[in-house]
Amino acid sequence: MEHSKSPKVSLGLPVYNGENFLSDAIQSILDQDFGDFELVITDNASTDRTADICLEFAQRDRRIRYVRNVRNLGAGANFNRAFQLSTGEYFKWCAHDDRLGSGFLTDCVRALDANARHVIAYPRLLGIDETGQLTSYVERVLPDMGGSTPASRFRLMVAAHGWDAAMFGLWRRASLAKTTLHEPYYGSDCALLAEMALLGTFVHAPNAILYSRDHPTRSVRLPSSERLAWQNPDGSTANAFELSRRLKHLVAIAYRHRRTAPLGMTLLHLVAWILDPLLIARLFLELVGAVSPQLRAKLRGAGLGALKRIHAGSNRSPA
């Protein structure tokens, strides 16, 4: 009897109504010069041509597995489902609107194979526009984590407020399986990266290229109410409590891994992080929003207006 061998790499592509850029994303995966992979597509009950596009590719390439959810689970749960259905030693989340350079997997696999302490190999991230043309955007590179402690790596990733190159890099499956995965709030990926930093180091694979597409409908451009519905379509409200939930999640992560990094040290880093005046203001607005969403909206608008005036004044040339 033949036993199917798990692939070296699993790629999970969670998608909802992604017909605009999906074909380009899938083709860039199939064009990799590293072939030992599976592509697991988890469709969050799309209502556009997403299913047709995925099924067409799946018929052409046996490495593609298309799974359609009965209902929209929310973005975080769909990301988790892509991982849970995968089997590879290494795992990568893919965005339906991004594109990979042809050597992405080869370079990231090489980086993880070289050192068991590495839990994420992350690429060079370049921006592209709706048409696929390069923009001026180049994401910054992480400081070298060699010789760093789990607590110091945790502090670095908490302060970073996320990192797309790492989020969409190549992850060591055994380490990712020890985490809380994505929670159902916008910004949960920031906490997940901080949790992975407790478990090992991130390594830069500079020859691996990720092309990150900017367009009006990407999640980072959605207003907060729509972002909440994107994460939790069954329970959206006017107040997302995004920062409050991330702080609670980070505290739970610190406690969960207290044997890896002393709890007092990780909690001290969290206190230092949250005492930033802008973060305190965000927490205050979330508290106000629990009582009066209208007042929260007014205060937020006034605050944004003040910040724009300050920014405009700092950029004004001296007379």
What does this protein structure show overall?
This protein is of the alpha/beta class. The protein folds into two domains: 9-219, Spore Coat Polysaccharide Biosynthesis Protein SpsA, Chain A (Alpha-Beta Complex), CATH 3.90.550.10; 243-315, no CATH class. The chain has helices spanning 22-30, 50-60, 75-84, 104-114, 150-160, 164-167, 173-176, 188-199, 224-231, 242-256, 263-274, 277-291, 293-315; strands spanning 9-15, 37-43, 64-68, 90-93, 99-100, 118-128, 134-138, 170-172, 201-213. Strands 1, 2, 3, 4, 5, 6, 7, 8 and 9 form a nine-stranded mixed sheet that branches. It is globular and about 55 Å long. The N and C termini lie far apart (82 Å). The relative contact order is 0.12.
- Runs in which pLDDT lies below 50 for 5 or more consecutive residues are 314-319
CATH class of the largest domain: Alpha Beta
Q: How many strand segments?
A: 9
Global morphology: globular
What's the pLDDT, averaged over the residues? Answer: 90
Count of the domains: 2
Beta-strand content: 15-25%
Let me know the largest β-sheet: 9 strands, mixed
Layout of helices and strands:
Layout: E1 9-15, H1 22-30, E2 37-43, H2 50-60, E3 64-68, H3 75-84, E4 90-93, E5 99-100, H4 104-114, E6 118-128, E7 134-138, H5 150-160, H6 164-167, E8 170-172, H7 173-176, H8 188-199, E9 201-213, H9 224-231, H10 242-256, H11 263-274, H12 277-291, H13 293-315
Parallel strand pairs: 1-2, 1-4, 2-3, 6-9
Antiparallel strand pairs: 4-8, 5-9, 6-7, 6-8
Helix pairs in contact: 5-8, 5-11, 8-10, 10-11, 12-13
